[in-house]
Amino acid sequence: MIETDFPSARECAGCHPKQYEEWSRSMHAYAQHSPTFEAFTLTMTERTSGTIGTFCTRCHTPLGVSLGETASLRNVHRSRIAMEGVTCVVCHRMSRPYYKSSGRIPVTPGQMLMDCEFGPYENPVRFGDSSHVARGSDYIRSAAFCGTCHDVTSPQGIRLEEAFSEWQNSPSAKKDIACQLCHMGPVAGVPTARHQRPYGKAATVPGIDPSLLPDRPLSDHTFAGPDYSLLPDTEFPHKLDWMYETDYRNQAALTPYQRDTLTALRVRNRLQLQQASAKRFELLMNAATIDVQHPSRASAGEWIHVNVRVNSNVAGHNLPTGFTEERQVWVEVVVTDPAGGVVFVSGDRDPNQDLRNDHSHFVEAGELHADPYLLNFQSKFVAFTLRGTERSVIIPVNRYLMPLTVIRPPTGIAQSFGRAPILRVAKGSVPPLQSVGWRYPVHLPDVRGDYTVQVRLNYRHLPPVLMDRIGVPQLKPLLEVLVIDQYSGSIQVGG
Question: Which pLDDT score is estimated for 103?
Answer without folding.
Answer: 83
